[in-house]
Write a structure and sequence with these properties.
It contains 1 helix and 8 strands; from the N terminus they run αββββββββ. By secondary structure, the chain is mainly β.
Length: about 130
């Protein structure tokens, strides 16, 4: 039988309980305020027409871009801005029908620019 001094036993137990308290401590994660929980967002249905349109002039979140009806040579440009001279978020090739999920925030506003008169697109934002 090995005898350990009482001080060593207390120190080992203290270290054990300290590690146990750190390991079992709950972790609290927080998402960005504008996307912390899903709430139904607004949507804009871009009718088959080309041009630039500001969808929101305040900070918000871009959820989805759905190409309902595709058009060859079509490009949709998304801007974090209240005009087409702002920061581009991305470029969407709208020659393929699909839904793209973005789930990102924009700081200045959301503006879109469409280069086709035949594409039918829905943008979901908040």
């Amino acid at each position: 039988m090995i005898r350990m001094p009482l001080v060593v036993v207390v120190a080992v137990c203290g270290i054990f309980f300290f590690i146990l308290s750190v390991i079992t401590r709950p972790v609290h994660a927080q998402l960005a305020p504008s996307i912390s929980s899903w709430t139904p967002g607004a949507y804009t249905h871009l009718l088959p027409q080309s041009g630039t349109q500001t969808l929101k002039s305040l900070p918000g979140a871009l959820r989805f871009v759905t190409v309902n009806t595709a058009s060859q040579g079509c490009t949709l440009t998304l801007y974090d801005s209240i005009g087409s001279a702002g920061n581009p978020i991305g470029f969407v090739d709208c020659s393929i029908p699909r839904t793209l999920e973005y789930e990102l925030t924009f700081q200045n506003g959301l503006t879109v620019s469409l280069t086709s008169i035949n594409a039918d697109i829905t943008i979901t934002w908040q």
